[in-house]
Amino acid sequence: MLDRILHDRYQLKSLLGHKTGRRTFLAQDLATQQHVVVKLMLFNVDFVWDDLKLFDREVEVLKSLGLAAIPQYLDSFEADTELGKGFALVQTYIEARSLQDWVESGRTFSESDIKEIAKKLLDILDYLHHRQPPVIHRDLKPSNILLGDRSGHQLGQVYLVDFGSVQTVVQGGTRTIVGTYGYMPPEQFGGQTTPASDLYALGATLIYLATGQHPDQLPQREMQILFEHHVNLSPSVVDWLKW
47, 55, 49: which is closest to 21 by C-alpha? Predict the structure, then answer.
């Protein structure tokens, strides 16, 4: 589908990601000449109705958000491609690498780096969780957090992306099970999520930055990640991450 033009406007340039029923492309907006991200949900053999529910929710949530650290909604439309019919969501493109890419390329993060990333992500979560109704990301992990290049002594801008699993909290929570093993809190395996579920995923992400290992690769006891012997952090930060 590369070089295909969708909606007479968006020319697909490269594939950014792929999972069941979805493809995410880097595209060029021919009207503005700017790079954008196009997310396609297709009605193919992999399609299930929960995919459409999550896609519609992502569109509606992004429309309602207005934070620079989150991709901005630009457009949505029906799409008819050689891979099948479906829907497309267009959002702003953020030129930054994911935390997972940074770690896999050999970058290490100091304690001050980890604390600064934590503060910036907590600001984003504070914004989401204080919406009415609260917005829970449900798939916060290193590959969904982008970090821009350093600027002088500044660490770089932090962004939270991929709202494809987002949930708006209603009384009684949700029963849809989504997320990534190692970063999901225990209650999420049962289909229940609260704003605290994102905080667990944030803690697991910070443990990954400190150890270079995904949480499911570390030893566990009674559903707690045993990471303290794999990090070089001050006792106060270790205790905070445990909490």
Answer: 47
